[in-house]
Amino acid sequence: MAVVSVSMPDELLERLDQFADENGYTGRSEVVREASRNLLGEFEDTRLEERELMGIVTVLFDYETTSVEERMMHLRHEHEDLVASNFHSHVGDHYCMELFVLEGELADISTFVGKIRATRDVLSVDYSVNPVDDFDPLSRGE
Fold it and tell me: How would DSSP label each residue in 87-120?
């Protein structure tokens, strides 16, 4: 097995070690391997391929980190064929939330979410996807 060196803040490393201890992992490597498999598998659901999807992406960041807000604006314009709507809100004293409503295919949504996750200083990214290509609201009651 290959050995990989990863840089992370001390606080995150402490949380990782605590998580491993509290959940019965043999160590941080096992946690990182499982997290990597989960991250890579998120968009590999073949049931969603080649389907029209709606996605909601929520991004939280510190408002004093202006580079994040600027990057979100650039991503919105770079993917304007995918971004159906965008909402910005202030949360608490120091944070901003960016919400994106996406309409497109899995590969495009995956690329968009990946670019957001790769943005330095983003605190959290949450998303969901739902197929809308065969949505029939009248059939829900049957």
Answer: EEEEETTTEEEEEEEEEE-HHHHHHHHHHHHTST
Around Cβ 4, how many Cβ atoms within 10 Å? 9
Q: CA–CA distance from 31 to each of 38, 111, 118, 138 (Å)? A: 11, 24, 20, 44
pLDDT per residue as tens digits for the range 36-79: 877 776 666 667 777 889 999 999 999 887 689 899 999 999 99
Give the whole-angstrom CA distance, residue 42 versus residue 57: 14
53: β partners: 104, 131
Residue 53 contacts residue 129 (beta carbons within 8 Å): yes
Residue type, 43: F
Would the pLDDT of 126 be above 60?
yes
Q: How far apart are the C-alpha atoms of 33 and 35, rounded to whole Å?
A: 5
Structure tokens at 12: 């995150």
Q: What is the pTM of this model?
A: 0.70
Residue whose structure tokens are 């990863």: 6
